[in-house]
Write the structure tokens for this entry.
Amino acid sequence: MTKTNGAQQPEKTDIKVSLIGGHRLKGETLHERTLTASLIGGADIDLTDIDIPDGAELRITKLSIIGGVRLRVRPEVRVDVHGIRLGGVKDDGPSEPDGPTVRIDAWGLLGGVSVRRG
């Protein structure tokens, strides 16, 4: 994950697109914003190897007809899930307001969001 220096440097966005098949993403290859889109296929995202600073937000947007998000984060990371999809959200993690945050915007018909910590 790259870091910005205030308002002088714009945030970068990664875009991953496929028709069929999901995406595997590792934290060290992502910027502050990531968009992953596919007709059929989920996103498997591992953020356990990066240090997200306190108060920082990493935003991931998932667009698909069928396919959810499997997210792995460190125990102290707060995860906010937004969007519309059939499928639930599985996360029993912390909700401390000032810690590092990953925001998942998941839009699609089928597929939930599963968060694993550790």
